[in-house]
Design brief:
The chain is α/β, with parallel strands linked by helices. The chain is globular and about 70 Å long. The protein is built from 13 helices and 13 strands.
Amino acid sequence: MAGVNGAVLRPPARESTSVVRQIADSVSSVVLGKPDVVRLTLAALLAEGHLLVEDVPGVGKTTLARAVAAVVRGACKRIQFTPDLQPSDVVGVTVYHRTRGDFEFHPGPVFANVVIADEINRASPRTQSALLEVMEERHVTVDGVRREVPRPFLVVATQNPVEMDGTYRLPEAQLDRFLLRLSVGYPDEDVEVEVARAAAAGRSPEDLSPLTDTRTLRELIRLTGRIHLADPLYRYAVRLAAATRTHPDVRVGVSPRGVIALTRAARGLAHVSGRGYVLPEDLKELVGPVFAHRLVLVPDAQLRAVTPQDVLGSVLRGVPAPVPVRT
């Protein structure tokens, strides 16, 4: 098989593909009827990128986050964000011991491999900003001392966009730290029946068996970084981002960080698909989850009920994709 530039490429190792498939099947056993959501979630996991799951209550946002944490044999912490949550409750605090006459650092819940930030928009902006450094740099600085968090490190945050009382809108700088933003959506009738049966039987994400440890996951992430992405696809990603910056309905378009996020996520999606190379279809599928939360529309567009998805649809129609060369 050849990629966009005609080079002969190999798929990921059979062992790698098998582990990824097992993880997908395990998560899908509790996140019912949402194979595309599971695929994109695993793409973020393999790209070691943070995930924001935004939807109405009760559709499985937290279940998805807990399922991802359950299949990874590593440290997992959950933070229930509330208006009175302090930054020290997230990153940790240094405590002085009078009897010993020294200081001791008490690490916060961000010192874990998978951090579930539940209802992140209920915390104050000051507490939300405590996550910025660690999400981007993979370390925190407390009392002038820099401390690394474990690797791999993944934040899976949830928020409810409907119930706005007592919430704080995530600033653009924080939204930009999330590799993907997903919406779970309502299940269809047959799936909802299965969800009800599973709840009656007491099935939960905690029942899932860990399928990979942090060492194996680090290797999967390393292999994901080696997935081939041809130069024409880099140029395609850049042109898609550039088209958002000149779109008449957009005030702030996608930055170079968004281009990097798109190419990282595309490698993750190719790995999930068992391919050793990225296709234009991977980039097209990811444009919405990667770019939409990075756009700021002009006020007139908002008044006309134009959405970021509308803008990205016109961008995809206006920017021609490179044609793969197959052998």
